[in-house]
């Protein structure tokens, strides 16, 4: 059994900071459960372009308001508490955070915690064996 608290993650290597977001990683590839679980905050007034070419991501909004844009189709979706989106087609997308937007994210395959977005917004596929 694994039990972790957000207060115990903040300020550790599992608390990953970027210019437009922070991601607190509760579950990572090293936990060997087949997915990773993150508490992520996208900062108010920012826009984050992403493309998970190597991962499927499910995102559930628990706080805040924003807009998700599918960069491939131009479709726009309001993001607010209670809204979930699933990037099951590796869509290029942008999240515009009108307020701080807090989400719970699940990645498959799981991230290791060492990934950073490249110039295209992609996380590389890193496995624990690559460590």
Automatic annotation (TrEMBL):
For this chain, one GO molecular function annotation is: ectoine synthase activity
Record has Lyase as a keyword: yes
Report the InterPro entries cross-referenced here: Ectoine_synth, RmlC-like_jellyroll, RmlC_Cupin_sf
Reaction catalysed by this enzyme: (2S)-4-acetamido-2-aminobutanoate = L-ectoine + H2O
Give the enzyme class. lyase
Supply the alphabetized keyword list: Lyase
Keyword Hydrolase in record: no
Pfam families registered for this protein in UniProt: Ectoine_synth
Q: What is its EC number?
A: 4.2.1.108
Which pathway, metabolic or otherwise, does it act in?
Answer: Amine and polyamine biosynthesis; ectoine biosynthesis; L-ectoine from L-aspartate 4-semialdehyde: step 3/3
Q: What is one process in the GO biological process aspect for this record? A: ectoine biosynthetic process
Q: Which family does it belong to?
A: Belongs to the ectoine synthase family.
Q: What is its biological role?
A: Catalyzes the circularization of gamma-N-acetyl-alpha,gamma-diaminobutyric acid (ADABA) to ectoine (1,4,5,6-tetrahydro-2-methyl-4-pyrimidine carboxylic acid), which is an excellent osmoprotectant.
Q: What is this protein called?
A: L-ectoine synthase
Q: Which organism is it from?
A: Actinomadura viridis
């Amino acid at each position: 059994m694994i039990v972790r608290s957000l207060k115990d993650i903040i300020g550790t290597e599992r608390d990953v900071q970027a210019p437009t977001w922070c991601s607190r990683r509760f579950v990572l590839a090293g936990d060997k459960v087949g997915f990773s679980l993150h508490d992520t905050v996208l900062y108010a007034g920012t826009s984050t372009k992403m493309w998970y070419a190597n991962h499927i991501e499910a995102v559930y909004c628990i706080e805040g308001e924003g807009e998700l844009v599918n960069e491939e189709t131009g479709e726009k979706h309001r993001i607010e508490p209670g809204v979930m989106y699933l990037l099951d087609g590796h869509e290029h997308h942008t999240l515009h955070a009108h307020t701080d937007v807090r989400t719970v994210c699940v990645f498959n395959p799981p991230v290791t915690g060492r990934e950073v977005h490249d110039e295209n917004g992609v996380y590389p596929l890193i496995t624990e064996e690559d460590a």
